[in-house]
Q: What sequence folds into this?
């Protein structure tokens, strides 16, 4: 039996309120399935499960607030094993008499696949229009109309929920204020506990920008790469060379194998969200771009999954175009490093005794001195420079 | 007359007073039809009028719809303002050639020189056990024809007022009256008179669903709305009134408000006025709909004779209530 506990969705989270179960006892779940929605200071988060099995018991009632680590449900992993065994039954012997179990199983699978393929949220024309006008995703809404059709009322409740999740149920509301408080808590903890050291370097981005221009010539407008994707790609590659910066400080340095880059997204209303791009080192540039395109709007809408909120191993903050040239980040605990990219700005640049104008990027590293020293940080920045000066390496 | 300046009157009396007022106001107006004079009208609508206005203006005609409707058209072409009564809509088919090929067409055929200011009153609908040759609801047949204005008097107010405005119209107007309503008492303003014959009318405001209907459906829908209010459903009732040309704006505005539509009429279900309204809503305000448009129409059989079967052949208050509940609460 596996215990499913209230996850920590960030260093600042102490408790969460279960808002809704998306499963019931007896449901089969697999890794990555969303099984519950939990309300935190950062909004309503969909919680994923990381085991396969069958939900045995739901131990929390909706609207119950519990500390991180509390067992929320138990999952029986048994069925999975049984299914696997079944698959091993040699077919030929019984084939003639009973095309039974295997054929049945196959049919079941087909059914499931079919059902998934044909799953299209049925909504009234009015509901569709309102959803489109307000950026509401119909696939997340349960319809209350005839035959489960999504109606105007359903979309409007979803809008209310989106703006102020479950206000009427008296749980935390993901308002600007709450996000502000969450950022405040995390940053205070960081500044109080983490002895930061700071390094800074300048990188000539000519080659990177040329490379990008070339690359974009072959891409449709939708697939265009932005400079930030190179920065994230370069951080991911550089951190493979300096793994001490990728991990947590929890009574000692815990290196992480996965490189999940947390990307700071500013909310228009103030405050930030830091969704993770998982396994960034293994993703091709176009995949990284796709991840960003997916994650940024969802972060702004506060519609992130639990793994995206809690599993980043190093953070990147990027100011983007037409902004300040330099940013010194504050580490997001329990991580040990944050990389800050300023705005790429044209500047005088001396090389081989000649002066020229180049697009220049100021890069900073803020790192936890308990975990690493300046030499480590410097090695990281040099690796980063190497990748951004030779974008073909990405 | 009571303190609020309203009078109680029957639907029949409202029509009669309309005819009287029209005839008093304008010497060119006269009434012609089968048994309208000595007998007082098949449904006693014109009882007493012969005595009041004389044989020249209350004219009994032979049993030939094609003949007397044609005569009416001729009179109107020559400057008169005839009110032609057709006893039941079933008999109107005999006059269909005159109505479609002459009344509705002459303005076009004469290059705009000849208007046909005739008003044809037709009784229709069930209610008096007159069976399959005297009881139908054929408003849709007339609403199909360009060149006609087709009105449906579903209330006392319209029974009293539509005729007066129709007589001002330079072109042919058909007014449908409902035998089912003749004895029904209703309140009418003491000074009730001519009414608008251009627009549909919201007879009851509501926010949850638009029940769009006309004719004999209006009072049934209003009664259904009262019953539905008891079940927490706030229904709006729209009386279409003018079946041709349809008043899109009033209908669409109601849809924009309630987002749900139930169309109710007694005419046979297929290819009726509701079909047309449904299509227009879908074409123009599709994105206002929060549920599929539904219709209640007459059962597609010749109207039966026995009372209980007659009642079962057209939508009743109960049917409306049940249908609305299903649309809104669907359980």
A:
């Amino acid at each position: 039996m596996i215990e499913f506990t209230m996850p920590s969705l960030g260093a600042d989270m102490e408790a969460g309120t279960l808002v809704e179960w998306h499963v019931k006892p007896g449901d089969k779940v697999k890794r990555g399935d969303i099984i519950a929605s939990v309300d935190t200071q950062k909004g309503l988060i969909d919680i994923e499960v990381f085991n396969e099995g069958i939900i045995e018991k739901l131990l929390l009632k909706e609207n119950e607030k519990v500390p991180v680590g509390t067992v929320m449900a138990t999952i029986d992993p048994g069925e999975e094993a049984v299914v696997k065994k079944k698959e091993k039954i040699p077919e030929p012997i019984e084939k003639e008499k009973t095309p039974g179990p295997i054929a049945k199983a196959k049919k079941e699978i087909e059914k499931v696949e079919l059902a998934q393929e044909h799953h299209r949220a049925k909504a009234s024309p009015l509901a569709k229009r309102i959803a489109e006008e307000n950026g509401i995703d119909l696939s997340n809404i349960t319809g209350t109309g005839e035959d489960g059709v999504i109606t105007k009322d359903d979309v409007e409740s979803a809008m209310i929920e989106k703006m102020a999740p479950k206000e009427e149920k008296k749980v935390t509301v993901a308002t600007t204020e709450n996000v502000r408080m969450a950022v405040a808590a995390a940053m205070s903890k960081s500044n109080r506990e983490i002895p930061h050291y700071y390094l800074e370097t300048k990188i000539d981005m000519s080659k990177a920008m040329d490379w990008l221009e070339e690359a974009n010539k072959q891409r449709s407008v939708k697939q265009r790469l932005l400079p930030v994707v190179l920065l994230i790609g370069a951080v991911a590659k550089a951190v493979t060379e300096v793994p001490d910066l990728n991990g947590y400080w929890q009574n000692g340095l815990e290196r992480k194998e996965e490189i999940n880059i947390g990307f700071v997204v500013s909310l228009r209303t103030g405050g930030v969200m830091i969704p993770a791009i998982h396994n960034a080192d293994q993703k091709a540039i176009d995949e990284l771009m796709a991840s960003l395109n997916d994650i940024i709007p969802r972060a702004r809408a506060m519609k992130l999954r639990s793994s995206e909120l809690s599993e980043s191993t190093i953070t990147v903050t990027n100011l983007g175009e037409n902004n300040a040239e330099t940013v010194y980040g504050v580490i997001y605990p329990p991580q040990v490093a944050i990389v800050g990219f300023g705005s790429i700005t044209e500047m005088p640049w001396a090389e081989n005794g000649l002066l020229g104008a180049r697009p220049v990027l100021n890069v900073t590293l803020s790192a936890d001195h308990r975990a690493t020293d300046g030499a480590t940080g410097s090695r990281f920045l040099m690796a980063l420079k190497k990748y951004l000066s030779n974008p073909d390496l990405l | 007359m009571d303190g609020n300046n309203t009078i109680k009157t029957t639907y029949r009396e409202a029509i009669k007073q309309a005819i009287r007022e029209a005839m008093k106001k304008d010497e060119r107006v006269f009434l012609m039809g089968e048994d309208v004079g000595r007998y007082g009208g098949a449904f006693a609508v014109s009882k007493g009028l012969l005595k009041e206005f004389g044989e020249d203006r209350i004219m009994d005609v032979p049993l030939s719809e094609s003949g007397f409707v044609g005569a009416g058209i001729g009179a109107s072409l020559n400057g008169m303002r005839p009110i032609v009564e057709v006893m039941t809509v079933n008999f109107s088919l005999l006059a269909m050639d005159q109505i479609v090929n002459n009344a509705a067409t002459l303005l076009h055929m004469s290059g705009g020189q000849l208007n046909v200011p005739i008003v044809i009153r037709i009784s229709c609908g069930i209610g008096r056990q007159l069976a399959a040759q005297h009881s139908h609801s054929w408003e849709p047949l007339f609403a199909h024809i360009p060149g006609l204005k087709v009105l449906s008097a579903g209330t006392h107010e319209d029974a009293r007022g539509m005729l007066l405005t129709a007589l001002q119209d330079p072109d042919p107007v058909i007014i449908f009256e409902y035998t089912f309503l003749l004895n029904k008492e209703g309140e009418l303003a003491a000074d009730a008179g001519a009414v608008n014959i251009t627009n549909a009318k919201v007879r009851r405001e509501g926010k949850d669903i638009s029940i769009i209907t006309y004719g004999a459906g209006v009072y049934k829908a209003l009664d259904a709305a009262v019953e539905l209010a008891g079940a927490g459903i706030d229904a709006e009732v729209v009386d279409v009134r003018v079946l041709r040309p349809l008043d899109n704006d009033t209908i669409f505005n109601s849809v924009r408000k309630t987002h749900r539509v139930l169309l109710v009429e007694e005419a046979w279900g297929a290819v009726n006025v509701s079909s047309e309204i449904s299509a227009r809503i879908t074409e123009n305000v599709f994105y206002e709909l929060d549920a599929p448009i539904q219709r209640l129409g007459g059962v597609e059989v010749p109207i039966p004779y026995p009372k209980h079967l007659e009642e079962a052949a057209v939508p009743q208050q109960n049917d409306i209530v049940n249908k609305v509940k299903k649309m809104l609460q669907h359980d």
Summary: Residues 79-97, 113-118, 165-173 of chain A have pLDDT under 50 and may be disordered. The CA atoms of residues 174 and 357 of chain A lie 46 Å apart. The first strand of chain A starts at residue 2 and ends at 5.
